[in-house]
Design a protein that fits this description.
The structure holds three protein chains of three kinds. Chain B is mostly helical. Chain B contains 14 helices and four strands. Chain C is 44% helix and 17% strand. The chains are: A mainly alpha, B mainly alpha, C alpha/beta.
Amino acid sequence: MSKNSNVKPDRFRELKLSLQVFFSNKSAVAGLIIFLFYLFDALILQFFPQILPFKHPYQLTPNYANPIPEPPSLKHPFGTTYPGIDLLNAIIKSIRLDFWLSLEIVIPGAIIGLVIGIIATYFGGWIDEVLMRITDIVFSIPYLVLAIAIGYVLGRTLQSMMIALILVWWPLYARYARSVTLETKELTFIEAARAAGTSNLKIMFKHILPNSLPPVFVQISLDLGTIMLTISALAFIGFLPAANLPELGYLTSLGYGYIQTAPWAMIIPGLFIVLFALAVNLMGDGFRDVIDPRRRSEL
Amino acid sequence: MGGWIIKLWQYALRRVLLFIPTLLGLTIIVFVLIHIGGTNKLLAMYLSPRLTGAARQQIIAELNQKFHFNDPIYIQYFYWLAQIFQGNWGITNTPIFSGPVTQAIEIFFPNTLILTIFAAILIWLISIPLGVHTAVNRDKPSDNVIRVGSLTFYAMPWYLIGIILIIIFAVWLKILPIAGTVNPSMVSDLSWYHNGISYPTHILLIDALIHGNFMVAGNAFLHLIMPSVTLALGVMAALVRLMRGTMLETLDQDFVNFARAKGVPEKVVINLHAKNNALLPVITNFGYLVAGLLGGVVVIEDVFSYPGIGMWLTDAMINNDMGGIMGGTLLFGIILVVTSLALDLIYAKIDPRIRY
Amino acid sequence: MESNQLKSSIAPIVKVEDFHLHYYTRRGVYKALNGVNLEIRKGEVLGIAGESGCGKSTLGRAIMGLIPRNAAVVDGRILINGKDYLKPLKEYYKNNKKFKPSKNADVLKKVNNEMSKIRGQEISMVFQEPMTTLNPLLQVGYQIAEVLLYHNPGLLASRRLSRSRAKKEDTKAIVKILKENGPNEKFEQYLKEKDIVGLEDQILAIWRRKDLHDLKKEQMIEKLCCEPISSFVKNYLERIEKENKLPNFSKIPIIGRIVKKELIKEGYKKASEFLGLLGIPNSDKIVYMYPHELSGGQRQRIVIATAMINSPQLVILDEPTSALDVTIQAQILELIKELKESINSSYMFISHDLSVLAEVSDRIAIMYAGQVVEVGNKDSIFDQPKHPYTQMLMEAIPTIEAHELKAIKGEVPDMRNPPKGCMFRDRCPYAMPICAEKRPSLIKIGEDHYVSCFLYEGDRL
């Protein structure tokens, strides 16, 4: 930072500052790039699967003729895992599934949580009490265990896992929304809006919601990683009945039996899980730098 | 000066009273889940599949008497709850154990208990000082290394950490054992150990020490190292980051500057004034970490084939064992609620403002 | 006190010479202090006035050495009893092309180490917000005792030891002496002979109390004896009494904790006595309370007690009454005025409220945009303000006589890009061409009255 700097007034000054803050954080940028790779994979495979030479783009293609995992080679750049699945192939497919799964769990969970949280807290009274009790109860069971129980009861399928995780996840956002709403609710400008006759609905969604979005946005990006880890953990312990489901956790469990002879079968899928979680965390950190007013101004 | 102890007990009493509704809420959830699964699954919880014919019918009649299956659902809940209090949690039917759920708990819970205690000790001893250190030495090389390390572990699925440890210590170096709590040949003819349960405390390590059998104790300890370290690493990553964050915020507060303005040596400023205040939000958030820890127990016991309640739950899930899943869920819930209560009390002991 | 009106020939406690301090943030470099020249003389109350953002708080903290890691000491120096503690920071800044907060923080660590010796002892500070100044997790007595522990452990050790050395007949004799002649040389002589000088504070604190019956006081004094003490602890305490230094507690963990606890306990007692002196009722119960159990006024009194219990040479008070409501404000000002009489320290009283400064100050300095624009004794400033800014401040004060409230037009300049010449030029009704080119410096225009303005070049004394 040079010892002299001039500041020009600018309409987009804050936006430019946000970009400057984010991009000056090198690891956040790296995280963003990696995230974009995953996004790219997910998009291409979802909407233009024709581009890639996959006969079954949404399923694993085992080769029972050669079930034993083979090390990386020209034919199989990442090697193969049991039973005869080409890892590069499998990973590209799995990234798509895991990515969309994470999104389809976190975003609905966040929306439900925010809406319920804001409404309940804004109106206060018994609605708020009920909400608090419900979130308390959901938090009283470790989320992985609860997901297992709900998913089991609904039949151990991909859909039931999604529903289970959404049910487990929304209370977190409801709590967030609650704390933001409590803070903002008492601010004078809300009273002013009410005095001017603004409807409750409008107050909630035009004034309170925007205030809660920045920290929630950071939390969403971090949760994408956590959910990915949770999904892969569930798949690893065998939540989904054996199927040719391209999922990174499931791939690692396939390689588990061959730790000593074929460590790559497990390490490589595992690596892609870690990479995603890492990327999303670094990105989230970068976002935090942008929205937290102190971190924003600090060098 | 004793006034605060009285206030603390009053507060503790209030928290204990509040935790009863939470426990009840917990049971309601489990009950609801049981019923979503349908009557067949419900029966499966209390009925051994090996029973057939007349014996089966008789047992069903007995169950009907106890649970009142034909009554409306909200009445059934109370009968079910009564059964729970009487210790009838159902039957579990998995490869590793078949029998009453309560017995399964008796076998598996102590193992998980010692595992989590070990992990908790490691976590506490290492994360707090590390978090404080990185905050105080902000942006120095040690801070950056620790942050990178903790971020990496934070992003790793727990089973992966465990597997890597297995590869290094069990496969390559061959110095640590995997699977189980102890080498079976060592305990095959011990008077105080049978059917997987050790007496008197049920915790193998402690019982071995009580009986003076240091070989078994040592072996049990070796078996504990990798799973508890894996568990600890997963949580430590999050805790170090949390501690660093709260510490950095606290260091900017007025009372820290005031302590310096008084001439208090920097070491005391950090360790007495800043650290204790920074611990408060950590403890508040710790409940969530414990939930993650318990989830991790499930996965790690699977990886290490460690016979605790996590492994029991996983087995139950794979084998469609309703009794095991519901029993396990209820148990995990109780553990989490009790731990949260304990955390609340610890918080109240440190922060005098809460007790009013 | 009359010596304050004359320019003191004794060296000032604090001399600020052309001090510059810049804050580095992502939004730019804020030039908070731009060549401050000031001195604080022995035994005076110097009021510092100015708007928010003029740098008065920053100046107070800089004198204490409480500088954040992103603040660079760019030039100048602050001499405390002749010593420049901030020199390493200035050297870091001047010797490095790029300013890095982390490297600055390293230098700051050493500076803090050096300054911790005098903080709480020679210089101390009272902050603005009493609720956030006190550690919410510790009893207030502990927080006062800390200052004694780290600077004057000998005193605490001596008190404790004296109570164990004193015998019943000693205390009875002392009561007799006090009743005859009060606390005179015979009293002190007796204490010295019996090697129980540590009892002096405790006895006098009881003797001077106004809320107790004489008989009760005698009883309490007589009780100050015969407290047994374990020999381990006694050895350490005796060494502490002699050297007035704490042992390295990490080397003696178990005994160390016991010794420290004894000292802190003693600290609580002395804190309670001092609070009693300050006129706080029930001080013996208050020391065991936590900050949130006390009212704002009580807390601020505790903070002031902490700052003053070691009779420092300089007390910096940063807006000590701004966070309190008016009645409490008045009480605290009374307290400060009483302290000014009894403990002859110097005071630097920072406030944006000129009426408060009029109550307590001997001299007043007016700050604007990181500089001192006018300084002089109170009457000169109020009756004959010279600097245009000072004049406008005076006119803006609401008074009983109806007059038009004149707000000062314009705003403080953006400190990231301060103007080339005089900082006040844009708002000054008397601005001249030279004001845009050069910055004025402080010139003497009266008996102990200095102003920084080109209007008075010709009136220079």
